[in-house]
Amino acid sequence: MGDEPRDREPGDHRPDESGRTSMFASLRIPNYRLFYAGMAVSMTGSWMQATAQAWLVLTLSGSASVLGLIVALQALPVLLIGPYAGVIADRVDRRRLLIVLQSMMGLLAAALAVITLTGVVEVWHVGVLAVMLGLGHAFEQPARQAFIHQIVGKDLIRNAVTLNSVMVNAARAVGPAVAGVVLGLVGSGLCFAVNAVSFVAVVASLLALDSSQITAETPIPRAKGQLREGLRYVRGSPALWIPLATMALVGTLTYNFPVTLPAAADFVFDGGPEALGFMTSAMGVGAVVGGLVVAARGNTGLRPLTLAAFGFGIAVGATALAPNLPTAICALFGVGWLSVTFMSTGNATLQLNSEPRMRGRVMALWSVAFMGSTPIGGPIVGAIIETSTARVGLAVGAVACLLAGALAYVAARRSGAALP
């Protein structure tokens, strides 16, 4: 069976000769529109929880290093079992797997809400639940990324991936802003409760999808050596391993915003949870604006990825040098814009260069590079902040982006990969 969903007439939403497509082309597909709406509600709740959890840990411990450790614990399962989770995503029905995982993560959010609202929460409780939530993310990320391709097909995957990033970052704009207000008025427990309820939306959307309009991809049979097979497959393609290596470096030292931003809001700009909410929301707004531009005009490939890495590094560096909170908020708008450009370019490049039977394993490695690198970088960046300032932590991330862009360019040239 082909890659095109059956509810599209041939050529209806395909890019034109210039590679451009309608900004919201993939949302014309009913299944993707439904899935997108459910995820939007859930992601908003998740960003509320992420903001509230960071503030709760910082309040309970008073330590950026402890906060970095909690962030690392949540990402640790992705690092340890992420590649195997990709094998599972290629073996099973991805829709059913997503329903189970989203339900499980909703229950974990409910448990955190209960112990927080009852006043018994301690840092170690948050750590245990963070590990369990990380287990859910380890299996959910590759399954969800590969499932998007089944909904929209090859022609619209870049548009869908970019709009997915727009949605995540729109949630980043709304969720932390709401969380900042709720934290100031009520506390973190209500944020966790709202997130638990938000998972109902995505589970309901998955149950409501029209199965006849989902491109069938036959799960691979269980066999030995499938993880090694996936690693060999990636190693043999520069169009796959270069984006993964680039994201691994950036993910380790740059995407530690749950550590750097709370520390900057509190220790550098002397703000409270409201300041953290505004800073995180500025990133989200920038990502929404940038993502919409990329959705309509963006490109895939190693050259756009390299340029996005350089731009991302410059924006993070500007944030590190910001003299006051308003300037930092303006710089974070640029961080959000370049962040979503970098992520969506890398993600779409991998999806377009992966065989269907390998896509789950390839996207699992993307999750490892993005989220699984945090257990390494989170404590490192937290320790850097503890011994210096949050500005230095941000500066380290900026340098990592610039270095990743340079290394990607050199690797592509030496491997003979196209840099169109």
TrEMBL record:
Species the sequence originates in: Gordonia lacunae
InterPro entries: MFS_trans_sf, TM_effector
Membrane-spanning parts: 34-58, 64-85, 97-117, 233-255, 275-295, 307-325, 331-350, 362-385, 391-412
Name of this protein: MFS transporter
Keyword Transport recorded: yes
Region (Disordered): 1-20
Main location per the UniProt record: membrane
An example Gene Ontology CC term for this record: plasma membrane
